[in-house]
Amino acid sequence: MKIEEYNLKQLVAPLLEWYKGHARILPWREFPTPYRVWVSEIMLQQTRVEAVKPYFERFVEALPDIKSLAECPEEKLLKLWEGLGYYNRVRNMQTAAKQVMENYEGMLPEEYGELLKLKGIGHYTAGAVSSIAYGKQAAAVDGNVLRVISRGAADERDIMKQSVRSNMEGELLKILPHDQPGVFNQALMELGATVCLPNGEPKCGACPWASFCLARAEDKISWIPVKSKGKERRMEERTVLLIRDGEKILLRRRPEKGLLAGMYEFPNMDGFLDEKDALERVKSMGLSPLRIEALESSKHIFSHVEWRMKGYMVKVEALGEEESGFLFAETADFKEKFAMPSAFRTYVQYLDILQGKDNIVQDD
To answer: Which residues have a catalytic role annotated?
Structure first.
């Protein structure tokens, strides 16, 4: 059934009543200022709620408003974001903050259409900020909402198609309660995040829509929503080198464009090198290796590529003058000063400074 043929209006009252007793206590919900709602929604893209909580608190404490975000030095900004992954999100946020300072007198605009003009803000985020922070009539359709509505209406269309998403936004806009659009949007998200779970494992017994759900009635929950497969990931083999002289560790900064743009990393190269070849690479950097130790293998999944890595710890004679493109970092200062992508988390632990492993998520 298409969503236009389903009575969405019958879902509003049961959902709002359910939400009153089941809404999770989340820091951005306690004080839903436009800035806090915006920051939380960007952080929650492709990241679990429990992982986001400590990062959100740290971020808004260090950068409490749009002005401080707009003026924050990039190194500090990336360090505050470290572990959340997808670093373009926070770069786009800073660009948008500068736009707000220049064009909106430092205040996030209220209207959905104006929010869409800001860097990194798409239809969902614009709808969330406009409805939750300002009480405007705007739909906020994320993956959770697409799943809930598709199952309720037994809608078998591909939710990866923009036409389907736009259609659902339009239909939801028709039933948004005028007095609490933001509450309704949050309730939809909450239902998808805590009850109408993905992969055919919803908690139907706890769902306020159980008696209205056509996918449940028609035994289609295991395969609705329909979601076309994305492009297959490319596999890359890499060798990671932890080069140190006891006090310092060798880092380099990635290019300003592309994957992990501008982030610090351990030197690494294409392909799996054996110990002999790895030592030759170290010598080619103008360094004198003393010993080499194989480290554990690792892998990291990005959006469209998967790194499969092997690593070596290489002890060298005292690091001399810094070469172009490399940085000799004091290991004692590493954790506080340098934002390291979570792709290298397996190797960070060898410096005894592993950072919140359970909270480190995918990079882009």
So the answer is: 41
